[in-house]
Amino acid sequence: MRLTQDRSLCETHQKIIVSKDHGTSRTHRADNTRKRYAVRQYKLDGDIISDKKCCDFLLLNDTLKDAYFIELKGGNVDEAIPQLESGLKEFQAELKEYTYYFRAIPSKVRTHDVRSSKFKRFKDRWGSRLQYKTEFLEEQL
Fold first, then answer.
1. In sequence order, which residues have a C-beta less than 8 Å from that of residue 83 and are 6 or more positions away?
2. 134: number of CA atoms within 13 Å, CB side?
């Protein structure tokens, strides 16, 4: 099991969980203000997963059994899809009781990227569980 509590980047009932790469402005912010949920955060790409491409972060709400796969992307949101899929593939067995959500935060979104067949297939499969927004995405847990 690779997703142990001691590897988490946040406290169990942390109020605000920020996923951000150093030197970039792209940010995912999860609000657990009432501290009612037990959470864990992991840096996947380059930390837990170092031998292949993977999404950047994984945020777990252990109380509700929700798993958020987060990719902070440069300019091409379409390229986030294989990395989100890779994260899911890597940890699906460990998170089989969880509901999966996907977040892509690129520096910009071009119309042709979100109309690509790869992006459309992923969106069709996951529906509203996939969200993308430029630069900053904030949500309540």
1. 45, 53, 54, 55, 56, 71
2. 9
Structure tokens, 94: 């460990």
**Rounded distance between C-alpha atoms, residue 7 and residue 26, angstroms:** 23
At 78, is the secondary structure helix, strand, or coil?
helix
Compare 23 and 19 and report the one with higher pLDDT. Answer: 19
Predicted confidence (pLDDT) per residue in 75-109, tens digit: 778 889 999 999 999 999 999 999 999 999 998 87
Report the amino acid identity of residue 105: I
Tell me the angle at which helices 117-126 and 80-91 cross, rounded to the nearest 10 degrees.
40
Query: Which residues fall within 8 angstroms of residue 117, CB to CB, at 6 or more apart?
Result: none
User: Is 129 within 8 Å of 101 (Cβ atoms)?
Assistant: yes
Query: Token digits for 137?
Result: 């995405």
**pTM for the full predicted model:** 0.94
Name the DSSP class of 56. S
Closest CA to 38 of 19, 71, 57, 10: 10
